[in-house]
Amino acid sequence: MADWLLYYTDPVYDAAFSLVTESPLLLSHDSDVRILFQLWLNLTVLGAILYLAGASVNFYFFFDQETLKHPKMLKNQVRREIYLSLESLPYTAIVTVPWFYFELKGYSKLYDTLDSWWEIPGAMLGFFLFTDCLVYWIHRGFHHPSVYWWLHKPHHTWKVCTPYSALAFHWLDGYGQSCPAHLYVYLFPMWKPLYMVSFVALQLWSISIHDGIYISNDEILLSCAHHTIHHLEFNYNFGQYTTLWDRIGGSYKKPVQEFANEMYFDKLKRKKEALLHGKVDGGDVGGKQKTGPIATTISAVAAEGMKARRGF
Ligand SMILES: [Zn+2]
Ligand SMILES: [Zn+2]
Predict the structure, then answer these.
(1) Which of 12, 50, 102, 140 has CA 20 to 30 A from 258's CA?
(2) Ligand minimally distant from the alpha carbon of residue 161
(3) Which contacts of 221-229 are long-range, i.e. CB under 8 A and separated by 24 or more positions?
(4) Spatial CA neighbour of 175 closest among 204, 142, 209
(5) Signal peptide position in this chain (predicted)?
(6) Average pLDDT over residues 194-206
């Protein structure tokens, strides 16, 4: 994949560098300085384009704009999410470059030619299971009190998420959670185009679990409904694609609470609507009856999550 990143952008860099220098360090395609710089800038720019395009399409065409009036939505949250994401990207790209550089030098198991179409489902499944497991444990590790406050808390600033929350991380947090995807192709063979598609799909999935569109209340697939609980209550649903490791690790929480067939987010949505129309006369949070304005009851959800937080 690194060779494509360089090859298709070489003409742009050739033209730009030839305007300002004659040094082979920047003009030669074999120069490590040029390769490292080009990889870094490409990762930064393409990462930003993918993030802004994916999150913006979601935000303007699918995201419920009413969510912006939610009492737990922060002032200027969308702007702050975009700022943190774009601020982090260049740093994330710096530490990501070695993965691409050593891939270019032939250390990965990526390959160009497919021998059989059966290699696709096998590699997809392997990539999916491998990253699902490691992202779970890395994410859970980031909730350890020794690192949580400086590393992962920035992402938990957002109690109610928007599509732009997806990459709104500390740069090392975003990098840490992307490492399993990079590591996979150093351990297992994968067809290059499939890796590229999987990598983009991973980014889009990240956006989708923050977009407030609860398309699934599936028991196996980890959706936005589950990740919403993670942002509100901290100690549940650390997974990325499936609920498997949350179940094994004892951190699974179903989006269905006390009421059969009634989803947690639906309760929040109703309470939000009630707030917009005045006061609610009763709120059921965590099975306890509470009375008062919606802001109070939803704050109680977050407060209970805070009380319950014990790192692991
Ligand atoms: Zn988290
Ligand atoms: Zn999140």
Answers:
(1) 140
(2) 2
(3) 222/246, 223/255, 225/255, 225/263, 225/264, 225/265, 226/253, 226/255, 227/161, 228/160, 228/161, 228/255, 228/264, 228/265, 229/253, 229/255, 229/264
(4) 142
(5) none
(6) 92
Distance 149 CA to ligand 2 centre (A): 15
Please report the pLDDT score of residue 267 as a whole number.
Answer: 52
pTM: 0.78
What percentage of the chain reaches a pLDDT higher than 70? 81
The answer to whether 237 and 257 are in contact (CB under 8 A) is no
For residue 140, the ligand closest to its alpha carbon is 1
The ligand whose atoms approach the alpha carbon of 166 most closely is 2
- Whether the per-residue pLDDT at 75 is higher than 60: the answer is yes
Q: Give the Å distance between the CA of 52 and the centre of ligand 1.
A: 22
**Minimum-distance ligand to the CA of 163?**
2
Every domain of the chain and the residues it spans: 2-212, 214-312
C-alpha 267 – ligand 1 centre gap (Å): 22
Cα–ligand 1 centroid distance for 310 (angstroms):
13
> Any idea which ligand is nearest the CA of 222?
2
Residue in 222, 220, 214, 216 with CA at minimum distance from that of residue 239: 222
